[in-house]
Amino acid sequence: MTTTARPGFDPELKAGLAIVGGVFPPTITPDLIAFMRKSYASPPIADTLRRRGIVRRDEVIAGHHGDAIEVSVLTPAQANGPRPCVLFLHSGGLIFGDRFSGADLVLDWVDQLGTVLVAVEYRLAPEFPDPVPREDCYAAAEWVAASAEHLGVRPDRLFVAGASSGGGLAAGLALAARDRGGPHLCGQVLDYPMLDDRGLTRSTHQFDGIGVWDRVSNETGWTALLGDARGGADVSPYAAPARATDLRGLPPAFIDVGSAEIFRDEAIAYADAIWNAGGDAELHVWPGGFHAFDIFAPHTVLAQGMIRTRNAWVEKILVD
Amino acid sequence: MQELLGRISALDPRASLSLRVIACFDELIVGNVNTRALLSAAASLAGCNAGFSQQLPPRAMRVTTKGAIVPGPFSPAAGSSVCEGGVTAWLERDGAQHVNDAIILERLLLALRLRHGHGRRDSDHRRELGLLLDTEAPIADRHTVASRLNLSLTGRYRVLAAPLFAVWHSHPTCVEDVVATPYGSIHALVVPESHDPVDASPCGIGLPTGVDKLDRSFRTAIVALRLCLPPHTPVVTADTYGALIGLLADLPDRAAVPDLDALDSVMAHPWGPATVDVLIQAGSVRQAARLAGVHHSTLQTRVDTITEIIGFDPLDGLGRSRLGTAYLCWRLRNSRVLDLPPPTGGRSGGD
Question: Where in this chain does the record put each PucR C-terminal helix-turn-helix domain (chain B) (predicted)?
C-alpha cells in the first residue's frame, strides 16, 4: 500500500469511478491502446445532433503536409449571419478518441450560445508522431480562418478549445499562431490540459493506479507522440506548451482542472506563467475532481459547477 | 453513466454491471451525499429521470440524468418504483424496463433510507452481511442476523473475498454483498465449509469458522485475496498458510516488521522476487536452483548476497521461518490484486 498523501475524490465522483473504471482503466500501457480506441470511441453523433437542432457537414481538408484529414462543421439550425466559431480538439491522450469524443459538453455552445463548431480529426500517435497531430490542428485553424465566409463564421471571433490532450494541442496552437502570425484567436479553453511531457510535477506522482489517467498512462501518451525525445531537451513548446518560456501575447485563457488528477500542477503552473507574462487567464481548480470528470460524470454537482463556469466564460468572450 | 454501462457490456458481455452499480451506491452511502446526488446518480445510471417521495415529513424530488431538478409531481408506475417504510423511489422510464433498473432502484431506495435516518437495523435485510462480518458488532446482533440470513448457528462457514471486478466462471448461490473495508469495497460471500472450490479470479477463501467468528474468516479471506497473483494464482485458500494467516490478518498495515526493510533491498535486485520465491518452496539450494532454472552456483551466489543483506542464513533453522514471514508481509505490502485491472478483453480484444 502506498503512503503518498493526496487529495481524496469528491464522494459523487468516487462513486462514478466504480462505473468509469470499467471502460477507462487508471493505468494505460501501450498494449491497451487498441482497447482504448474501442472503449473511448464516441457514440453515434447523428442522434445527438438531431435532438439538439444542430446541422453537421463533414469536410475533407489539407492537414499536415497537405494530407487529407476530416473535419465536421456543426452549425446551429437557426443560424443567421456570421457566427463565432470554436475549433474543437478532442481528448484521448494523443493516442485514442475521435473528433466527437467528449463533444457533448461543447455542443452546448452551438445550440445555446449560437457558435459554429469545427471538430478536427487530427491524426493520432504512435502511427503519426509529433508534429503531425499538432500540425493537423494548425492546418485546420488556418482552413477555418481562410474559409470564414464559406463557413458563415466571424474571423474576429475564432477561438480554440480542447480537453486533456486536446487542451495541450489547443495551447500549442495558440503559441504557434502567435509566433507564425497565424489566425487571430480570441480565446483558448484548456480543460485539464496535457501540457508537460517531463512528468516531474508532484501531482503527476500522486495518483498512481487510481482515478482516470495516471503517470504511466501519461508516459504512454507522450512516448507515443515523442518517442525517445520525451523528457529530453529537444521537445517543441508547440507539442508540450509547459516548455514555453515566452507566454506573452497569447489570447485570454480559460483553464480548469481537478485537484485529484495528475495535471493539477501543470495547469496551475501554466496559468501562473501567463499571469507572470502579463496575460489574461482564468483558472479553476475543482476540489476532489479526477481527470475529465465533467465528461464521465456530468450529473454530479462538481461537474455541473465546472460546466456552468466554463460556459459562462465562453459566453463572456464570444457572445455579442 | 448509462452510456458507460452500455459500453462496458458491449466490450465484455460477461462483465457484472450490477456489482458496479452496487459499488457506485456504496460509495455514495459512504460519502454521505444528499438526496439530489443520490437521485442524479440513479438517473444517470438509468438514462431517465429518477424520483423519490416520502410521507413523513411529506417531501418529493425528481432529478434528470444531468442532475437538474424537475419541478412538479409525478405518479410512478408500479413496475418502475419501489416502496419501503414510507419511502418511494422510482425511475421515469418510458416503455419496457431496462436490465439494470431493478438493481438501481433497490440500491437507490436503500441509500435514500439511510440518508433519511432509517437505520440499518430496523428492516433492511440486504445490508446485514456487513454487520455479520463486523468485528465491532455485538455477538447477539450477529446471531440475529445469521438467523435471518438462514445461516445455522452451529454450522461452519467460510467467507470468500473478491474485488468487484473479479471474474466468476461459476458463481456460488449464497449470502453475498459488497462490504466496505480499509482496502476499498470488497465483494464478500458466505459459503458452507465444505463448499466446492470456487472458480473465480482473483478470490481469497477464508478459514472455516462458526457464525460468530465470520469477521475473522473475512479478514483471513482478505489476506488470502491479497496474496493472489492472477493469472498464475487466481485463488488462495487461507488454510494453505496455517497459523501464519491469522498472524498476518492481525498485523496492522503499517506495523514495523523486522527483516522487511532488509528484504526490500533483496527484492530491489532483478532476480530478488523469483529467487526468494523458490527459496521458500525448496528444501535445498540445489532444488531451488532447479525450480528457478539457474545454475547451482548462480543460486548459491544469490543466497550469499541475501544472507549478507538480511543478516541471517535464509536456509537454516529459524532463518527459513523469518524469510517466509517477511516474504508474505512483503507480498501483502506490494499486492496489486485489488487495483482495478484493465477491463477484461483489453489485452485480447483489441483490434
Answer: 275-327
Question: Facing residues of A311 across strands?
Answer: none
CA distance A85 to chain B (A): 26
Q: Considering Cα of A311, then A316, then A318, then A320, what sign does the dihedral take?
A: positive
Question: Given the DSSP bridges, would you call strands B203-205 and B235-237 parallel, antiparallel or unpaired?
Answer: parallel
B191-218 pLDDT tens trace: 999 998 888 889 999 999 999 999 999 9
Answer whether A313's CB lies under 8 Å from A113's CB.
Answer: no
* Contacts A–B by Cβ distance under 8 A: 128
pLDDT at B342: 53
Report d(CA A264, CA A253) in Å as an integer: 16
- The pLDDT of B157-179, averaged and rounded, is 83
pLDDT band at B340 (very low <50, low <70, confident <90, very high): low
Q: Which of A35, A43, A38, A33 is nearest to A93 (CA)?
A: A33
Strand B87-91 relative to strand B50-54, pairing: antiparallel
Residue that is written with C-alpha cell 529459524 in the block: B318
Q: Kindly identify which residue of chain B lies nearest to residue A17, measuring between CA atoms.
A: B24
User: Is residue A11 within 8 angstroms of chain B, CB to CB?
Assistant: yes
- Return the residue of B nearest to A1 by Cα: B333
Distance CA A284, CA A305 (A): 10
Beta-carbon neighbour count of residue A233 at 10 Å? 6
Per-residue buried b or exposed e for B112-141, using 16+ beta carbons within 10 Å of the residue's own CB: bbbbeebeeeeebeebbbbbbbbeebeeee
Q: What is the pLDDT of residues A187-232, one digit of tens each?
A: 999 999 999 999 999 999 999 989 999 999 999 999 999 999 999 9
- The ipTM value here is 0.90
The three three-digit cell numbers of residue B86, written as one number = 414510507
Examine residue B202 and say whether the peptide bond preceding it is cis (omega within 30 degrees of 0): yes
User: What is the pTM (predicted TM-score) of this model?
Assistant: 0.77
Beta carbons of A218 and A226 less than 8 angstroms apart: no
Would you list the DSSP string of A42-95? Answer: PPPHHHHHHHHTEEEEEEEEE-GGG-EEEEEEEEETT--S-EEEEEEE--STTT
A94-142 confidence digits (pLDDT tens): 999 999 999 999 999 999 999 999 999 999 999 999 999 999 999 999 9
On whether any CB of chain B is under 8 Å from the CB of A12, the answer is yes
Q: What's at A23, amino acid-wise?
A: V
Give the cell for residue B168.
Answer: 466468476
Which amino acid type is present at position A161?
A
